[in-house]
Amino acid sequence: MTSRVQLNFACGLYDRMQALQTGEVQPAGIDLNFIDIHHPRDVFDRMVGKLEFDLSELSASEYITRYVAGEKTFVALPVFPSRAFRHGYIAVNEWTVKRPSDLEGKRIGVQLYTMTAAVYQRGLLQQLGLDLSTITWVEGAMEKPGAHGSPSALSPLKPVNIQRNRTAKSLSQMLEDGEIDATIGADLPPCVHSAAHVRRLFPDFKSVEQQYYRDTGVFPIMHLIAIRRDVYEKHPFIATSLYNAFCDAKDLALKRMKFTDALRYMLPWLPAELDEIEHVFGEDPWPYGVEPNRKTLEALIKFLHDQSMIEHSVTVDELFLQPRGINWKIS
Question: Gene3D superfamilies in the record, alphabetically (predicted)?
Answer without folding.
Answer: Periplasmic binding protein-like II
